[in-house]
Amino acid sequence: MEKPDIRKIIHIDMDAFYTSVEQRDFPEYRGKPVIVGGSPEGRGVVAAASYEVRKFGVHSAMPAAKAVKLCPQAIFLKPRFEVYRAVSKKIREIFFDITDLVEPLSLDEAYLDVTTNHLGIPSATLIAQEIRKRIKDKTQLTASAGVAENKFLAKIASDLNKPDGLAVIEPDEAEDFLAELDIGAFHGVGEATEQKMNSLGIHNGDDLRKWSKVELVNEFGKTGRHYFNIVRSIDRRKVKPNRIRKSIGKERTFSKDIDDLSWINNFLRELATKISESMKKKKAAGKTVTLKVRYDDFETISRSTSFNSYINEPGDIADTAISLLEETEVGDRKVRLLGITLSNLNLHKKGRFKQLEIPFK
């Protein structure tokens, strides 16, 4: 008899979304190694990589300079975010035709709780097949899906048979599946954590399960509790249809390295104005300003400061970011990327926000 508290969760992940859209719209790119973002001159960062270029070791978030070395014949394309957003909207319409419990993670992936659904179908596997079919019919793109009793397992399952695949992890199979899974394949275990776990003799789920909660907390802090639970298929997170946005920010990678402080100050003011406009459209305000800097050697740093009151005025955001520049080596070192993020948000704050008086040295 099925446990009443078992949920039926689907994780949908579009296959190489940005590059797949480009290959759909431009037949000459099909079957070719395509990169969205960056440039063949080695500027910027890879935003998305087609499966053809991934064979060479290229992946998203990789510096374009490294991608060029790995695959000199790669085709670099500028992102068309307005197109990607339009396609994503069509896909989400499909999701909401199935269930109201949809938690988008990005333009190309989402969790769906289909324990109860608009189709009246009891099988989450059949629903996942139907979703993938509707996506293909409506967008001519493929999606991979994972089906499981919780979000953690569904996320892992969606990666198992990519691209254009479907995997199901049944509740009574979950612990055996996790026992055999390489520790690096556990969602949330990054490269550094994987290396540390390997050094401790933890190479797969079976190894991890031998550790007590106390031992894991001693080695990994609070995250140790998370590792203790997930290897036992315990994940009580619900699918949240109204995720609260935690930050609003913008950044830009420059076509050439910059060390002109006057130009940088003006650029940060332009960026702050755009962030302020976005904040006001959402009737939002924030307390924490973060400046992101990537130097010409790809070293990336951030500097933040927080206030007691909420802000969303362009002057406040810009003055704070420019003040944070004093804590960096900008001016002495050239930069290739600058960004500002406003976080610690109150998205429904009403009334006027305080105009800050920011002291300068």
UniProtKB/TrEMBL annotation:
<dbReference type="InterPro" id="IPR050116">
    <property type="entry name" value="DNA_polymerase-Y"/>
</dbReference>
<dbReference type="InterPro" id="IPR036775">
    <property type="entry name" value="DNA_pol_Y-fam_lit_finger_sf"/>
</dbReference>
<dbReference type="Pfam" id="PF00817">
    <property type="entry name" value="IMS"/>
</dbReference>
<feature type="active site">
    <location>
        <position position="109"/>
    </location>
</feature>
<feature type="binding site">
    <location>
        <position position="108"/>
    </location>
    <ligand>
        <name>Mg(2+)</name>
    </ligand>
</feature>
<dbReference type="InterPro" id="IPR024728">
    <property type="entry name" value="PolY_HhH_motif"/>
</dbReference>
<dbReference type="GO" id="GO:0006261">
    <property type="term" value="P:DNA-templated DNA replication"/>
</dbReference>
<keyword id="KW-0460">Magnesium</keyword>
<dbReference type="GO" id="GO:0003887">
    <property type="term" value="F:DNA-directed DNA polymerase activity"/>
</dbReference>
<keyword id="KW-0963">Cytoplasm</keyword>
<keyword id="KW-0808">Transferase</keyword>
<dbReference type="Pfam" id="PF11799">
    <property type="entry name" value="IMS_C"/>
</dbReference>
<comment type="function">
    <text>Poorly processive, error-prone DNA polymerase involved in untargeted mutagenesis. Copies undamaged DNA at stalled replication forks, which arise in vivo from mismatched or misaligned primer ends. These misaligned primers can be extended by PolIV. Exhibits no 3'-5' exonuclease (proofreading) activity. May be involved in translesional synthesis, in conjunction with the beta clamp from PolIII.</text>
</comment>
<comment type="subunit">
    <text>Monomer.</text>
</comment>
<keyword id="KW-0479">Metal-binding</keyword>
<feature type="site" description="Substrate discrimination">
    <location>
        <position position="18"/>
    </location>
</feature>
<dbReference type="GO" id="GO:0003684">
    <property type="term" value="F:damaged DNA binding"/>
</dbReference>
<dbReference type="GO" id="GO:0005829">
    <property type="term" value="C:cytosol"/>
</dbReference>
<protein>
    <recommendedName>
        <fullName>DNA polymerase IV</fullName>
        <ecNumber>2.7.7.7</ecNumber>
    </recommendedName>
</protein>
<feature type="binding site">
    <location>
        <position position="13"/>
    </location>
    <ligand>
        <name>Mg(2+)</name>
    </ligand>
</feature>
<keyword id="KW-0515">Mutator protein</keyword>
<feature type="domain" description="UmuC">
    <location>
        <begin position="9"/>
        <end position="190"/>
    </location>
</feature>
<dbReference type="GO" id="GO:0000287">
    <property type="term" value="F:magnesium ion binding"/>
</dbReference>
<dbReference type="InterPro" id="IPR043502">
    <property type="entry name" value="DNA/RNA_pol_sf"/>
</dbReference>
<dbReference type="GO" id="GO:0009432">
    <property type="term" value="P:SOS response"/>
</dbReference>
<dbReference type="InterPro" id="IPR017961">
    <property type="entry name" value="DNA_pol_Y-fam_little_finger"/>
</dbReference>
<keyword id="KW-0238">DNA-binding</keyword>
<dbReference type="InterPro" id="IPR001126">
    <property type="entry name" value="UmuC"/>
</dbReference>
<dbReference type="GO" id="GO:0042276">
    <property type="term" value="P:error-prone translesion synthesis"/>
</dbReference>
<keyword id="KW-0235">DNA replication</keyword>
<keyword id="KW-0227">DNA damage</keyword>
<keyword id="KW-0239">DNA-directed DNA polymerase</keyword>
<keyword id="KW-0548">Nucleotidyltransferase</keyword>
<dbReference type="GO" id="GO:0006281">
    <property type="term" value="P:DNA repair"/>
</dbReference>
<dbReference type="InterPro" id="IPR022880">
    <property type="entry name" value="DNApol_IV"/>
</dbReference>
<comment type="similarity">
    <text>Belongs to the DNA polymerase type-Y family.</text>
</comment>
<dbReference type="InterPro" id="IPR043128">
    <property type="entry name" value="Rev_trsase/Diguanyl_cyclase"/>
</dbReference>
<keyword id="KW-0234">DNA repair</keyword>
<dbReference type="Pfam" id="PF11798">
    <property type="entry name" value="IMS_HHH"/>
</dbReference>
